[in-house]
Amino acid sequence: METKAGLPAEASAKAGPKDVFLHLLAILLLYVSAGSFIALWFQYINVWFPDPLAERGYYYLQSAYSSIRWSVAILFVVFPVYVWANWLLRKMYAINQALRELKTRKWLLYLTLFVAGLVIIGDLIMAFFFVGSPKEERARRFDDRRVSDLQAIQGQIINFWQNKERLPTNLAELRDDISGFFPPNDPESGKEYVYEKTADLSFKLCANFNRESLENSPKISRPAVPYPAEPYFGAENWQHASGEICFERTIDPELYKPFEKGTR
What we know:
Blueprint: H1 17-48, H2 58-95, H3 103-130, H4 134-164, E1 194-197, E2 202-209, E3 243-250
Antiparallel strand pairs: 1-2, 2-3
Helix pairs in contact: 1-2, 1-3
């Protein structure tokens, strides 16, 4: 005897709490397992192929290893339970094929696809609308890192002058194993930044930028903006056009006084 849907008679049996619970459990365990597996591989990629824009070092690796341990721990506990739940469901399907047509099961599957689709579409729309293409955003992040690197180098040059009352002849002189400062290289090309001593108190730092800075409106045509005359550190200007840009700086000895011997 068959029902109107063409299924065996036992297919007309209604789903009980056990059936609903197992389907809910299986789909939730699938979410957790998939999320942990994706997170695990993301961290493996971070360790094997580190992002040049990321701050690397002891804490960078510790964070990645901690995330790997958490993901492995979750998978070790959750995935076997997921396999067990699916094994029970397959046994139930073998006894009653109508359980595959449960509304609960279909709702969960289609809801999963619907939410995943919305997340992907929403992320793409927001990403392209607010920050442009991933390629464009990454190019600007490289430029941001270059400005940050130049700021750090400039601070070390000033500190070097205050301690030794002379400018370094090259960036290698700024290396300090005790403080842990090592002159950074360009995050994209890996080349050293250009440093040149132009006078007893003057120097310039150069970098090759992918894009002009967002602060430039209208577009600037000059190669760089010199260090302003205002006597405070926050007045420095790092606006830039695209291409190789040099920033000229002159140390004010009254503002940045040399350290007295024996005071440090």
